[in-house]
């Protein structure tokens, strides 16, 4: 599946890993993927989140409130794995890509995979910040259609 990631999607995963390490979390969860999507800053997912008023510092604060900090720093040289819910986001992103007939996984698919699970910390954060999950999915599809129409 990783070979299907676009350059920007790969960047999101790297940024998510950095966010997890900054919180002293030993693996990457949906909340870290959400932070990575925001930090990437240019792709479809970042635009949708920005348009919905979802900002980096607000999300970081919510992650700290809901998940907290880990007990000890994570070795920055160690590769990180995904939590079960983080891996579920990747699998859902792949399914979103396939359903749309794409042969790649873009940031839009990550965001759609993220909002598919309304029980994750990331979804709770989005809802807490006023972003309706259905509207996030709709806005993502609309923005992709705008790009495809160009």
User: How much strand?
Assistant: under 5%
- Number of alpha- plus pi-helical segments: 8
Globular, elongated, flat, extended or rod-shaped: what is the shape? globular
Secondary-structure element string: HEHHHEHHHH
Mean pLDDT: 89
Sketch the major β-sheet: 2 strands, parallel
Tell me how many strands there are.
Answer: 2
Spans of at least 5 consecutive residues whose pLDDT stays below 50 are none
Written account of the structure:
The protein is mainly α and 150 residues long. Helix content is 64%, strand content 3%. The chain is built from eight helices and two strands, in the order αβαααβαααα. Helix 1 packs across helix 2, helix 2 crosses helix 5 and helix 5 packs across helix 6. The longest helix has 16 residues. It is globular. The mean pLDDT is 89.
Write the layout of secondary structure elements.
Layout: H1 7-22, E1 27-28, H2 30-40, H3 44-51, H4 56-66, E2 81-82, H5 84-99, H6 107-116, H7 121-128, H8 133-148
Helix pairs in contact: 1-2, 2-3, 2-4, 2-5, 2-6, 2-7, 3-8, 4-7, 5-6, 6-8
């Amino acid at each position: 599946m990783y070979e299907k990631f676009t350059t920007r999607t790969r960047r999101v995963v790297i940024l998510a890993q950095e966010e997890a390490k900054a919180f002293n979390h030993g693996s990457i969860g949906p909340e870290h993927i959400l932070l990575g999507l925001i930090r990437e800053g240019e792709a479809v997912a970042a635009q949708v989140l920005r348009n919905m008023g979802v900002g980096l510092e607000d999300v970081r604060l919510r992650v700290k409130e809901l998940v907290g900090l880990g007990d000890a720093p994570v070795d920055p040289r160690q590769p990180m794995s995904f939590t079960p819910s983080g891996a579920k986001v990747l699998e859902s992103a792949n399914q979103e890509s396939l359903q749309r007939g794409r042969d790649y996984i873009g940031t839009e698919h990550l965001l759609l995979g993220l909002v598919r699970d309304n029980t994750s910390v990331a979804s709770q954060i989005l809802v807490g910040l006023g972003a309706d999950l259905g509207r996030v999915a709709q806005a993502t599809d609309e923005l992709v259609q705008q790009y495809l129409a160009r």
